[in-house]
Design goal:
The protein is mainly α. It has a domain of about 35 residues. Helix 1 packs parallel to helix 3.
Amino acid sequence: MPTLTLITAAPASDAAYRTDLIRRYVAARDEDTQLDLLAEAARYDRSNPGAGLTDELIGAGLGDAA
């Protein structure tokens, strides 16, 4: 049986949380911050199978190349 992981820092809606994380990733000025956000996205993806938030972050970081 799947279990849910409560993300206490997340806004009330899933869409708002995802949008905020992507915004912070794109605005990140250093690689360490980006890696921290990727790790957060990976934890989210493990808790929400099929979510693909990590892929969204990587895609957003590619800009026009994506």
